[in-house]
Amino acid sequence: MEARDNWKGRVLLIGGVAGALTGLLAAYLLVRRAEQQGVAPQLEAGEGIRLGLLLLGLLRQVSMLTEPEK
To answer: Taking the CB of the first residue and of the last residue of the chain, which one, N or C, has fewer CB atoms within 10 A?
Structure first.
């Protein structure tokens, strides 16, 4: 019975690791692009808003994975 109760912890751990790895990859790509252009990395307000909206859309899609189809 304990194996059935432990799934929440595993899901949270896997999600946390996947999120951290994705964040590190995004930061690496941002730094690499800045180095190629010879400037310090900057995130403008418009880019920040677009990124935030994209992340909200992604979270919405993930939350819909557990909903039954209509």
So the answer is: C
- pTM equals 0.67
Kindly report, residue by residue over 6-63, the tens digit of the pLDDT: 888 898 999 999 999 999 998 999 899 999 999 988 888 998 899 899 999 999 998 8
Q: Which domain holds residue 44?
A: 2-64
Number of domains in the chain: 1
| H-type alpha helices, the chain | 2-5, 7-37, 45-64
Contact 8, 16 (CB under 8 A): no
Cα(68)–Cα(40) distance, integer angstroms: 46
Q: Residue 22 has which token pair?
A: 């994705």
